[in-house]
Write a structure and sequence with these properties.
- With about 80 residues, the protein is of the alpha+beta class.
- The chain has two helices and five strands, in the order E-H-E-E-E-H-E.
- The protein folds into two domains: about 35 residues, no CATH class; about 50 residues, no CATH class.
- About 25% of the residues lie in helices and about 30% in strands.
- The radius of gyration is 14 Å and the shape is globular.
């Protein structure tokens, strides 16, 4: 789904959780955008990042994003899932 104010994409697991997030408001477009596969099984590999200072997670398929995540204090967790 997409957060209306920021344009940020959000992935949730399960219809129940999706409905809970939609009820809170501020999100739209609840669609199944892709089917996640185990790491290294698909055509596009998503790298996971974790920021130990904030507890935040980030994900990207772009090599260029590795620099940005690192500058913000994130640590690469390697391939997390693929599509």
């Amino acid at each position: 789904m997409t957060h209306d104010a920021t344009g940020t994409s959000r992935i949730v697991s399960g219809r129940k959780r999706m409905n809970e997030v939609m009820e809170v408001g501020g999100n739209s477009d609840p669609v199944e955008a892709f089917h996640a596969l185990p790491p290294e099984q698909g055509n596009v590999q998503f790298i996971g990042y974790f920021n130990p200072d904030t507890g935040a997670y980030g994900y990207s398929e772009l090599e260029a994003d590795a620099v940005g995540f690192t500058e913000l204090g994130y640590v690469s967790q390697g391939p997390i899932w693929s599509v």
